[in-house]
Amino acid sequence: MGILLYNSLTGKKEPLVTLEPGKVRFYACGPTVYHFFHLGNARMFVVFDTIRRYLEYRGYEVRFVQNFTDIDDRIIQRAHELGISPRELAEENIRYYFEDAGKLFIRRATVHPRVTECVDDIIRFIQDLVDRGHAYERNGSVYFDTSSFPEYGKLSHQSPEDMRAGYRIEVQDEKDDPADFALWKAAKPGEEWWPSPWGPGRPGWHIECSVMNYLYLGEQIDIHAGGRDLIFPHHENEIAQSEAHSGKTFARYWLHNGTLNINGEKMSKSTGNFIMARDLLARRDPRAVRFFLLSAHYRNPLNYTEEALDQAEQALARIDRLIRDLEHRAEALQTMRGALDRAEEVPSDAARSDVEQIRRAFIQAMDDDFNTADGMAAIFDGVRLVNTRLEDGGVNLGDLRLYRDLFVELLSVLGIPKKDEARLEDEIERLIAERAEARKRRDFARADEIRDQLRHRGIVLEDTPYGTRWSYES
RNA sequence: GGCGCCGUAGCCAAGUGGUAAGGCAGAGGUCUGCAAAACCUUCACCGCCGGUUCGAAUCCGGCCGGCGCCUCCA
Q1: Residue nearest to nucleotide B12 (CA to C1')
Q2: CA of A78: how far to CAs of A16, A35, A38, A88, A200, in Å?
Q3: Is 70 exceeded by the pLDDT of residue A81?
Q4: How long is the CA A416 to C1' B17 vector, in angstroms?
């Protein structure tokens, strides 16, 4: 029995069958970098980082792409307010993204493409759509012709006719049909622009994701993920663009996480109903914040309260105490080595069987549409079982280590490092960010210094064209 | 108006046909110099009303309450 995942496209749980056996092409919508991200954004990042980790845990090679939208109305607007250029604002917020994401133990994607790096590819992609009769130009803007794509609406389960009934905003006359959407926006005076066959302008909101998928994952991908509120119009439009372009099915599985609520309503920057991840992380244990974000199933709504966070902190402390207890006992036994048969380093059959049972329960829960709440329950069942073993005595050194490694393993699948390592991972991310800055300044002395410093601590850095990844030296 | 989601103990939260996981908080107990931790015990008429079924938190219908999307949104 393999992994089942809920597919928004079909409304059903389906077995995971990837395009290429053993490999997953996974795209998650990333942030528009005009500000810090809030806890609702954080939930999405944490959820899909956890799914990525779990897929890897189950043996898949995951190519995980997450974009930065660094061209956008809000970026232009906020940059203007702050009196800096849109580029400066975006750069700054990308840096803040990595800082805050690092604190939440969100790993770097395989690739973090930026819209500004893909403008030429975007223009080519739009030109292809125009050539194939799926898009048309009006006054320097280009629009997607939804009537040219009969399956438009298949993700949000609405036909263009249904949607028409709900239009809140008076339609621009420029478009042939109100359901059509912009691929390329003609520049208004004073706005940032790029040259194109249709005149100066910039990419529309949805096109970047289609193009980045195409560039970094190919015409067809396995999993496309994002917040529930992106189903329409963003993901619907992405499907239209990508499938009109390739003539093939774009993503096999669409995953959407539920909203994070505060005061019973969706956390949202535009309504002012939000709490910045950065502010929360400054006063709360990041491990507990991550634990809280995973305490509900990812598709369900999750309500933020201080009390829920307190409870997450207490619950996590229970696991931490057991791990610490196991380590302390192991240390004690080690100093008595030879004096007792309990110093035996080969784990007993009983302990092996316990560990297998706990791991199996965890996998069974997570295989079922990444049910982290159930997975946590499996961990707590394990905590009780192992505590019972410790009460009964007769646990040898090998057993202690086996148990300890199990809990560290399962927590790490959820992206929660062992308590005393949390600070370390955070620090590594910070150093990598600092090194990236240094490299950008061509200050290679400082960059190498950081690399050497980390190497001495058993951490290997690897620079890829798409960023730096790190791992423990094996 | 259209599409969709949610309502499980004081709190958080799994569970989609066979008489309710897990966590937090609480109560009682064991252990302990005291305490903590740990362990044991304890704590639910699954929003309401009908229906289907031998059997429903789970399926169907209706109602009540809350929420999301319908071109700013994760």
Answers
A1: A308
A2: 41, 9, 17, 11, 21
A3: yes
A4: 37
